[in-house]
Design goal:
Number of domains: 2
CATH class of the largest domain: Mainly Alpha
CATH architecture of the largest domain: Orthogonal Bundle
Helix content: over 70%
Mean pLDDT: 83
Number of strands: 0
Structural class: mainly alpha
């Protein structure tokens, strides 16, 4: 009994320490005090000021563009790589899996420095100019993300019945048709998880971005600024815009919504598999529960859209 209480207390303490700072930022995003801890009255003004701040909007736009493009490319490469490795010979599979582990366990600063040296070498001796740009940044993010996509897709391939692919070929499908109609649907949850993780890694990344970025995107001729590099440069200047608190709250809300939707999608797949053994009452109760959750998520989205539109 005592061990159980201590274990729960430890978990709750860790959750408290993890989420209280986020909740503090969320609460103080509804006041325009110059610093966190100073309550200057309840207001939605920061949300309007956020979208009127050109520097922050450029950083957000760059971050979203890089995250989406790099995540899509990484998901495609990681998924096809996982499928190819899964159907490879055992020795080849072992070699590639060990190579895939290196970027995962390696320090990110080592990856960033390695990419920097490589781009400097290529620019100096091949192109004879500085090649740091959007493309070097995109390549850096993809190098960071692809191994994690592979690790998300691999378990789904191992759970899949290998006879399904062979049966599709026996029934007249070409290898490409069997891939799209059998393999991809079976591993879709892993692909989606890998895509979501890729977006998270890209949005969160600072080191690779700082070392590999150059001019381009919404920054024009200036160096590409993402949310992480913008906040870091603001901290160096000791002037962090208070609108960042509103930006943080919106990011938290979006991540929460995406996480809930992903979990609900995975639960929906499990529900479909077990629907035959559930009673009609259980099915109705589950549908009501899902409707309530969807309603709450929609209310959150509408709330932020309304307060942003009012304060613009």
């Amino acid at each position: 009994m005592v061990k159980k209480v201590l274990a729960k207390s430890y978990v709750y303490l860790m959750l408290f320490l993890m989420y209280v700072p986020i909740l503090v930022l969320v609460v103080f995003s509804f006041t325009d005090g110059e610093s966190v801890g100073i309550w200057n009255g309840f207001t939605f003004d920061l949300y309007g000021r956020l979208f009127r701040n050109e520097e922050i909007m450029i950083a957000v736009g760059n971050t979203v563009i890089i995250a989406l493009i790099s995540s899509v490319c990484s998901t495609i490469i990681g998924t096809l790589g996982a499928i190819g490795v899964y159907y490879s010979k055992r020795r080849t599979r072992a070699i590639i899996e060990n190579i895939n582990q290196i970027p995962v366990v390696n320090a990110e600063i080592v990856l960033a420095l390695s990419l920097t040296f490589m781009f400097v070498f290529i620019g100096t001796y091949i192109f004879h100019e500085n090649i740091f740009s959007f493309w070097t940044l995109l390549f850096g993010h993809m190098i960071l993300e692809v191994p994690f996509v592979y690790l998300n897709v691999k378990p789904k391939l191992q759970q899949m019945d290998p006879a399904l692919y062979e049966a599709a070929l026996d029934l007249g499908c070409s290898p490409r048709q069997a891939l799209y109609k059998v393999t991809i649907p079976q591993i879709a949850p892993g692909v989606l998880s890998g895509f979501m993780l890729s977006i998270t890694l890209s949005l969160d990344d600072f080191i690779v971005t700082a070392f590999t970025s150059g001019p381009g995107l919404l920054s024009g001729a200036g160096k590409i600024e993402t949310i992480s590099t913008f906040i870091q440069s603001s901290i160096k200047k000791k002037i962090v815009p208070i609108e960042v608190r509103a930006l943080t709250t919106i990011i938290v809300a979006l991540v929460l919504i995406a996480t809930v939707l992903l979990v609900m999608y995975q639960n929906h797949l499990k529900f479909k598999a077990s629907a035959r053994i559930l009673t009609q009452k259980q099915i109705v109760a589950r549908r009501i529960k899902n409707s309530v959750i969807y309603g709450i998520l929609a209310a959150i989205v509408i709330f932020f859209v309304v307060i942003i539109c009012i304060n613009l």
